Queue: 4 jobs
Job 1
Amino acid sequence: MSGAALIARQSSSRTATGQPVGSLSWRFQQALKSPVPYLGLLGILLFGIFWFLTTEYLKLPRFEKLPGPIEVWTEFTSRDPTYGTSMYTPEYYKHIAWSSLRVLIAFGLATVLGVPLGLFMGWKRTFKDYTFPIIEVLRPIPVLAWVPLAILMMPGREAPIIFLAFLAAFFATTLNAMLGVESIDESYFRAARCLGSSPWQIFKRVVVPGAMPDVFTGLQIGVGVAWFSLVAAEMVSGEHGLGFLIWDSYVLSQYPVIVIAMVTLGLVGYVYSAIIRAVGRMLMGWTARTQA
């Protein structure tokens, strides 16, 4: 590459102020200029107003038994909560820690096993012919249907919960990785073979980068389904965790705690998805430069 071409390439990857395209500061400035975050805040505000009107002000039928936002917020911010769960109680953070640890283990296993499997399924037709039918038969089975077998197969209480969360995330990561490889233009494979690339080089330099966007889409989906599968598993066989907290609060008629745990689930799940998106942007910097 000539010196002029190199300078042009470097300048094209920077903004007028000299900031690298795709950097954290650049993305933050782009987000502030976009109406998306403001519309999101407005949507949350409108939902809160609707929640208040239906539960506390108008007390409409089917909503009158539900806790309102003021009641939930009062319980959550109380140093002496009525039902024993608030932002000041260690038990609340203990439930978050247990659920987060389980999801990390399950999602990590699903990523380590599912992504390579999906890449090879999309790359090698013969390998896909053997494995794809098995996955397609197992994938539609609901996670709750696996609960009895998981309890019978796995020792203790933690292994069945992690297995159920892993199972849901595994299918999402595997299939998205496979679809990512299948979406790569065949001309890239032909060009690599014509240039004398070995199969390993093709896999490393064509398959993996080409499938990366779909892989990270699958990871975001996978971490989401891992969370709601985990909650279902904790309701059945857990002793700690946000899912257990929701079910235990329902049994004890502690309805504000149910909402607190549900909102916490949404926030923690959002943080997990945001981390995956951030990692994906770092590993796929060329997409940010192309958009710019």
Job 2
Amino acid sequence: MTMTTEKQKSSTLPMIIVAGLFFILGFATWLNGSLMPYLKQILQLTPFEASLIVGSFYIAVTFTALPSASIIRKVGYKNGMALGMATMMIAGLLFIPAAETQIFPLFLFAQLVMGTGITLLQTAVNPYVVRLGPEESAAARISIMGILNKSAGVVAPMVFAALILSGFESYGGQELTVAQINNMADSLIMPYLGMALFLGLLAFAVKKSPLPELPSEADEDDGKTHGHIKEALAHPNLAFGVLALFFYVAVEVIAGDTIGTFALSLGVKNYAVMTSYTMVCMVIGYILGIFLIPKYVSQHIALTVSAILGLILTLAVVFSDSHSFVIANSILVPFGGAQLPDTLLLIAFLGLANAIVWPAVFPLALSGMGKLTSTGSALLIMGISGGAFGPMVWGLSSSTSLGQQGAYLVMLPCYLFILFYAVKGHKMRSWN
């Protein structure tokens, strides 16, 4: 047996475990796409207030990414993963009193705690994927993890609809009575209790698993956190990478989580599953990434194509006819699919443009970071906070003359910056 074969074999089990964690991350994250219009309906929220449901989830990243890196340096990657899932378990339990009282701030707090747990888990698992193999093929490995993450995004809205919205399909697009609101709110309790128990068991299982510890910066002076940050940001490819991921997550969450709210405004009954359409497109994009990168297309070329496609689709979303069904009649209805407005499907197609961005940016940004990898990873994870601001800017813009459809114009500058990073930003190794 060659040394290469032994290394591949030794990394197989860790990758399987990490793959399972990416599925859990995706499931918990993309529940927001169903939760946002659901709470908008039962709590009678404005589009901006509904965007805070997603915003509170992602804003946790801003405050907890760097502390997460510090925690991982102290306890290790494996314990960091277990702690992340334990925090997610607590968040699941918090949804129970939130549902019983129907107090909006309690939902926001539960979302904030869930975002904190996911940030810790993200900061721990992403370096595994980058460092368990050659750097040049890291985008392909992250794409595999992305398929699982986004496949969970396909499944989560369906599970949400089956377990929570079952029997409430006729409530879509109408003003609810107090009894109907209470029934819908109560339907949250058992599913979130089950999710909390599952996460707790999984945290214990990971803690006791044979997952090996990656080399870390545990021997470094942990009191030099600011020094680590300053040293890491001295690499322009990382600094611009953080901004690229900020704008990427902004457009990813807009496409994945606002599509249900927009569908509700158009009177689409199955609004809770609309996120699944965007996630299916992302899965297709990840599969293309696995086959094309790096054998046929380099990471930065794939990123360039993604940014240009995002710009084109954004303009198509804004200027399309929301009463036209040409796309659905061509590719869905003949196969028994739903007849959905072209605008909704164009939003879903943004999943294709978004799929390769994270897998391409993450390794390009961490290139040459060495001992600063975990700090760089934490800074990149902070880019996820774009998921808080993207939907909120969309929600605010929806209240203007642009309306909900025109508000998708906020994605244009995001894709323009991603294009800059693909063409120039990732190549910069010095600020001089």
Job 3
Amino acid sequence: MATFFFCGIGGIGMSAIALYLQKKGHRVLGSDRSFDANNNLEMKERLLKAGISLFAQDGSGITDQVNFLIVSSAVEESIPDVKKALELSIPVKKRATLLADIFHSFEKKIAVAGTSGKTSVTAMTAHILYQLEKHPVMINGGIMRNVYHNEEPSNLIYDTGDIIVIESDESDGSIELYNPYISVLNNISLDHKPLAEIKPLFERFLERAELGCVINLDCEHTKTISLPDKKIVSFSVEKDKQATLYASDVFQTPQGISFKMDGEEYTLPFIGIHNLSNALAAVCACLLLDIKPKDAFEALKTFKGTHRRLEKVGETGDVIIIDDYAHNEEKIKAALSALKVLLKQDTHLFVVFQPHGFAPLKLMKDGLIQMLKNELSDQVSFLMLPVYYAGGTVDKSISSFEVIEPLFMAGKNAVYFETRSLLKKHIVDRVKSGDVIAVMGARDASLSDFARSILETLKEKEIA
């Protein structure tokens, strides 16, 4: 057994691997600057309960007893933990490389990729396998809201079977490290990198699949991929009847979504066409393991979702507060479509959005503006906060105001706020019974706290 020290252990991807290694019997230590700032406390408590020792991110936890320092792809050598490890000649290993080592130790390796929905598809796939007693391991980039093995909700499912399901990331190129048994490609859209750069990554990911691939026929960039030597299962929602799994007659209510497939009618307990697409991707992956779709859909009836994916924070005065991870054009569009199902006549949707980085905002700005011009109605307000800054050396030559200004000029309900307190006051002064408030954005764990703070403030107000 080895001793691993995770620098940035509070990160959603880092923490899942740390918890897995702790379960395997290794000694796991870690630090995170969000913990030092008294943020991300739920994750801190989760790690401490698992028996992981935490230190300030000042190098104090790095000793000659540490065998490996684990870092993210974006780590800088100026961080005290990294400097200390280099001084002590402790091997520094990237998170993605460690995950690849774990992944390849399993016989049946399922990797889920795509620029949207991969966390949910990973979670749904693992949930089906768990419910059908296939004893999977899951390492995910989101906290499951179900409870497995009588443990608290987590981004890890730990079991003793020969199947592992992981979320594989294209943003840092680490998807190249994985050689799956089953490759699942949910979609391709603009996010961290230009399409011309990421599409070849996804194509090679599919080509490396040992057993077969899952492809979305509703995505213009995935449906054209040719894999003549691979076993392909595909899915579509009301677009391509040639798909292996084709969902038709889709009907949505605030309680869930129903559809027909092969003469059978199914109902799932979540909203959003994108979530139905995610479910089909998961069922396709299980189909390659000879699991019948009917059994897979039955298992998904107990799926409660993942943290910050259209997660209901609470309700007060008939006002619903939602927390969501949407952070690019396609994800925001999908979330808007789903949330509109919750609106009644003469009610309003307040969307709070914090961009997750300066570089991503610069890349997606034009597409985001055009999408919002098309999707925003009089029933929707789009409220933006300043770009999230996680530290380090970055080009800050773009701001949220550059998205808001053209929307405002186009007559949309779009406003920029310098602070969260001003934004919250704007909502609290205007919200009425039946309205929906959604907080969107990635990377910043405090967004969930902000959503809860809006709920608490509204509880103190008498809403008409």
Job 4
Amino acid sequence: MSRSLATRIAGISDTKAWPWLLLAPSLLLVFAVIIYPTISGIDLSFRQMRLNRMDLGIGYVGLRHYLALLDDPIFWISLQNTAVWVFGTVALELACGLVIAVALDYELPGMRVMSVIILLPWFLPLVVAGNIWALMLDSRLGVINAALQGLGVIEGFKAWFADPDWALPAAILVETWHGFPFFGLLLMAGLKGIPSELYEAAAVDGAGFWHRFIHIQLPGLRMIIVATVVLRAISLMNSPELLLILTGGGPGRSTQVLSLYAFQKAYREFNFGYAGALSVVMFLLLMTCSWLYVRYSNALRED
């Protein structure tokens, strides 16, 4: 029996089906964890699914939810706020992370301890960070209000998250504080991978800090910058936790973003079909913007 089984296995291994048999467990896992939930979510966007109105049924309604989005003013406000939220936060986090990475790359005394301290905001749970900043920016007891008033920047304590003009910028600054170590850590690792011969050649040519940064460090970080920007944009667009903690989408709709709107539709109004349509729109926007960014950033160009 053992010889017969070994012979059969040997015969299968010589066929084209053998690689697929080896990949079958991994493919099954990918299908169960990624493909099936994605297809199920897309299918949900074409259905009527309101848990508080089960009398409406769960049948297909075609493009009804997508057509409703076009006439939904909150959707367009959320789309605009999402663009400001994602692009503004990613730009600030990238700038701060790049500055920190370049500074830490010099390996000055105390930089190892500083690198650990800088990473602390990223280790802090977002719920904890959000509540800490809500207290620091409190309109009555906030230490930041007290400091700004002491410096003469503001005349009196300001309710930052209750002001439609300042709520979203304040939330962006809080998210930047929490997220910039992600860029700093990965960009610093990228700088360590740049060959030292390039720096030595630049020093022989008399290149200063700025020329070395522009012509050596930035080109060497191109792939890492593209990857981190795409990953962080996906994370920000899909994660409304901080805005839910700080503002709940208010005041008015000044901090309403698509992910928060989808969350509210699903878990406050129990309209999972409409929330599914919002999720599909977010998915398409992310795919399109990521593709355009990767293409026009020349990240896949071979040097």
